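Have a close read of this protein, sequence plus structure tokens, and explain what the tokens say about the fold. Thanks in advance:
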Amino acid sequence: MQLVAFDMSCISILKEKGLRLTPQRRIIVDAIHDSSHELTAETIISAVQEKLPEVNKSTIYRNLDLLEKAGCVFKSEVDNHTVYHHAEIHHHCHLICKKCRTIIECDEKLFENLKDSLVKTHDFHPHFHHIVIEGYCGKCMGKD
């Protein structure tokens, strides 16, 4: 049921922008939506080429860029890798331990005070879609 809702919103977004939902775009959108976590471009390329072997990497990268610009997917950096996730996932934050590489998810509500401060102090209105903060988890803090 959730897949249909996402597909409909992505289809609507693409139609609004005068873009078609090609078979390649559909497979990319489905791969990202069906995953419970972010996917690297390589993972998406494998998923697309499994279903459409004739599609080359550059076509997939162009479609990922187009889907990001259209607002169907978000691209971000996690652990020195570019990852993609669908735009309808709640906005969230990753806390990544620099020592053990544990990833902890937290809600963007933690940044409400920062957001308010940026608006008041700088008349800047941030959009926190996906935030990555590196530091040390409790287990690794203080370990060499």
